[in-house]
Amino acid sequence: MTLTALGDAAVVLQLGNTIDRGTALRVRAAVRRLRRSPPRGMVECFGAFASVGVFYDPASIGSYAEFCSAVVAVSGPGEANETDGETPGRAIEIPVCYGGEFGPDLGAVASHARLSEAEVVARHAEPEYLVHAIGFAPGFPYLGGLPPELQMPRRPVPRLRVAAGSVGIGGMQTGVYPVATPGGWNLIGRTPWRLFDPGRDAPVLLAAGDTVRFRPVDAAEFARRETEARAAVSRRGADIPAGAAIEVVRAGQMTTVQDGGRTGWRGQGVALGGACDAFAQRVANAVVGNPSGTAGLEWALAGPELRFEAPALVAVAGGDFGVPRGRPLAIGAGETLRLGPARAGCRGFLAVAGGLPVPSVLGGQGTAVREGFGGWAGRILQAGDRLPFLARAAEPAAWFVDPQIYPAYGDDVTVRVLPGAEAPEFPPDWFGRGFDVSPQSDRNGLRLAGPALARATDAELVSRPVAPGTIQVPPDGQPIVLLADAQTIGGYPQLAHVVTVDLPLLAQLRPGDTVRFREVTLDEAHAVLLAQEESLGWLGQGLALQGFFRGGETRSRARV
User: Fold this and answer.
1) Reported pTM
2) Which CATH class is domain 91-232?
């Protein structure tokens, strides 16, 4: 049992290095114990193949050493039987149509294994697989039991989109993509079943401890079962309150409803999500008197044009989109707020006093675009949408938040990192090197371009927890820095982890901008994070004490 840092707000408890049923039992037992008796400051935990990710609040743990000791003490051997208290797993058969358009890599797997495609299908469908973990994407099952001859390295360059239901092989692992997502596994087939539906009482079909068998089906049966599956998809109606609305006149680019993120669902493969620039979101909400995690609007590169049917108090933070940032803006009934193209930065956040009362799905109001749930109809906003809000009359105000509180946004930034598990396997000269931001970047991750980083070994890794800020290096040597919508489990080498305080700097980078990295210690990362929390705390207290939100009263000007 070893414990390593996963950035500055999580640790990974490693219980082995192999995919086997004994290790899986220990992982599930450790998760049960940690959830039953959570150490002080623990936010959530979940299991992977041979490890457990334990997330914590640095401001609530006392000391890091104490927290780590508590994690080991709680999760260590303490039950006579590792299966005590565990609900027996279910045996589930999943239909799969192999090859063709559904399995474009079946031929490559067959060639790698020196088998015929029919032999690959037969050997893949023969075993009883154990569900070791759910991760990467909502409902994605990491399955153990793949025959050794079918093991194959991940693709050098991940696909930007893998269709929902695709069955793939990555190293010594196999699994099913429940939603359309980027992915680097070799695709050999597809199932018509929906492994994830946020509207179901049990959103995720499979759970750690279940067993799975794949049953080959032909294209005709696939089509029939796909029709049945579509008909069974839940159509839960959106409970939208009546009243005043914000009309989207022009949608801007990638404009979505976002909040402070979802916690407690990573064990189901649901990303943390929330605003990419969490600092901007918190400042904007503070300016209009909202709790820090209140839902608002986030966009990238080009802001929306919004018409308010009733008076509102709003604030904008993040990049420069042509309106004052970090100050309250009084909007009259029938007035339009125009947010233009970015003059600086990439992402903006708009907070509305009282928030946006969209339905909560899986504990959050943010939009999970890839999975199609949350926010406004689970999608990017479109012209003509009408979002509900709470009307709020307000007088014009001249005060603003002192810009000194903001991160050092720029188009050539240096961010602080903590070493990742595979850092020793890469030459240290990547520090200080400039990497360009690729146009293929999105809310899932910042894809970087530069001289390829060469790993000293090509050994496959067992997938384990990741978090926003984790820097992964796929086989092509071009790093990917995970952002708000990042998967929960990943199998690429972990080069480093960007500290939480510097994630907003990444969120504001545009394609072609440059990022460099500087290593710091965990103590330094915790210190700057606690200092930022103190600054935000003073901001909120200062606004409240000055009475900016009592009865619409404002001061002529204040720096907080």
Assistant:
1) 0.89
2) mainly beta
